[in-house]
Amino acid sequence: MKYTLDDFARLIDHTNLHADATHEDMKKLCDEAKKYHFKIVAINQVQSAFCAKQLKETDIDTGAAIAFPLSQQSIASKVFDTEDAIKNGANEIDYVINITELKAKNYAYVKKEMQAMVATCHKHNIPCKVIFENCYLTKEEIKKLAEIAKEVKTDFIKTSTGFGSSGAKVEDVKLMKAIVKNDVRVKAAGGIRDSDTFLAMVRAGADRIGCSKGVQIIKALKQRMTDDKVSSIEIKR
Q: 202, 145, 135, 219: which is closest to 179 by C-alpha?
């Protein structure tokens, strides 16, 4: 598939999830998203109303992170926070799975939580992204989660919060994609800071990239395309 610069920009969830982010930081994030035509701004739930207002009458979405980054909350709490974020203007949701229950092999709980979150999002016609936090998981746990996600029919499965011990890895993206195939999309996030890593994740099967370095990545891709005198880059997956 051939990607134009705008195609690449529309893969990016432009991210600022820092606890000390100011209103000025959020406005800058939204302004950059508008300038470069990113897919969404990815922010903490409490920033939903502010960012949704900044992005009103654009095609850029507001993506709220739920139970982020530790996910040590009940299903009811996650659902409440999701409804609150949507009420305040969020129109994409990323939530972190309960790793404690996954480690206990309580797959019924993990599935129940995922079903509740997907149902809440889909009730409002909003995509639900399930964050695995792969740095804490075995390959078998990643595979099991992907199988559950495929069964539940979530919209995306996501590698990482970016706040764990490591972020996205090409081999994990390939593994996740191999399980869900085209039934569920894959989002790579965490540690994606340059255009080479960005392209590697897309080649591996990532359908969305979460990163805080989107501006630098798009500028680097633009320079690469200018140097090569091309208007698109072919990605074989």
A: 145
pTM here is 0.97
Q: CA-CA distance, 36 to 21, in Å (whole number)? A: 21
Q: Which amino acid is at 134?
A: N
Pairing mode of beta strands 233-234, 61-66: unpaired
Cα separation values, 190 from 17, 163, 186, Å: 12, 8, 13
* Cα–Cα distance measured from residue 207 to residue 219, given in angstroms and rounded to the nearest whole number: 20
Q: Cα separation of 185 and 193, whole Å?
A: 21
Backbone angles phi, psi at 157, to 5 degrees: -115, 145
| The token pair that represents 96 in the structure block | 């972190």
- What are the catalytic residues? 94, 158, 187
Q: What is the pLDDT of residues 6-55, one digit of tens each?
A: 999 999 999 999 999 999 999 999 999 999 999 999 999 999 999 999 99
Strands 12-16 and 92-96: unpaired
CA distance linking residue 237 with residue 225, whole number of Å: 20
